[in-house]
Each structure stands twice: as C-alpha cells, then as structure tokens.
Design a protein that fits this description.
Elements: E1 3-8, H1 9-13, H2 24-37, E2 44-49, E3 60-62, E4 65-69, H3 74-87, E5 91-95, H4 99-105, E6 110-112, H5 114-120
Parallel strand pairs: 1-2, 1-5, 2-4, 5-6
Antiparallel strand pairs: 3-4
Length: about 120
C-alpha cells in the first residue's frame, strides 16, 4: 500500500518566524529543496502551494515530490489531494496546524503538525 504525505506549505512555512513573509516564493523553494533530500518513509510527498509561494517552485514532479499549485485556496487543494490519494488506496498523512483543515483532511488519513515535519527535515 503506497504512502502519501500531503504538506500544507503555507502552514508549515508559517510555523517558523524566519522572515518567510519577506520572500514567500523563496521560502517555498527552500521547503521543496529540503523535502527532496529528506529521508522519510513516504512513497510520495505532495507539496501544496498557494498565492505568491507558487512562484518559488514549478508545478509538477521532482523525484518523489510532487508540487501542486492551488487553483484557489490551499486548504481545498490539500483536502482534494488527500482524498485523491486515499481513493487510490494510499495511506495518507497531512501536515498542517490548521485545526479546521485537520478536521477536513482527517477524513482521509492522519494529520501531523508542522513541528513533526521540521523534525524530519
């Protein structure tokens, strides 16, 4: 059974006060780069970007990391990706601290906090 990690990039990047708000695209690019080299047990990592962060990483696949540009809000894209993966039979984990998003995405798999992800990176 494949395993998929869906990352709410805005929420993960926003969890660390490192000046990300000055360069959202750069912050997204740095997170993407760290996910590419991270030693995680997931078969696929889906990085969901929204707004200005989309300028930092092109949509598409780089190795085991697939970047998705949210057409509207990031939360809906995160839920859609989690649902699609679960429907394909994958075990899904969503990373976000947003409680509303945790409740929505929790229907498709488990949720973990951004601090958990940062510890993996």
């Amino acid at each position: 059974m494949p395993t998929v990690l869906v990352v709410d990039a805005a929420n993960v990047v926003g969890s660390r006060p490192d000046g990300w708000w000055k360069d959202r695209a750069g912050a997204a690019r740095r997170l993407h780069e760290r996910l590419l080299v991270a030693d995680t047990p997931y078969d696929e990592i889906v990085l969901v970007l929204e707004g200005a962060a989309k300028g930092g990483v092109r949509a598409g696949r780089d190795g085991h990391v697939r970047t998705v540009h949210a057409p509207r809000d990031g939360d809906s894209a995160v839920v859609a990706e989690a649902k699609a993966a679960a429907t394909r039979g994958a075990t899904v984990t969503v990373v976000t601290a947003d409680r509303m998003l945790q409740a929505r995405a929790g229907a498709w798999g488990q949720t973990l906090s951004p601090s958990w992800l940062w510890d993996q990176l």
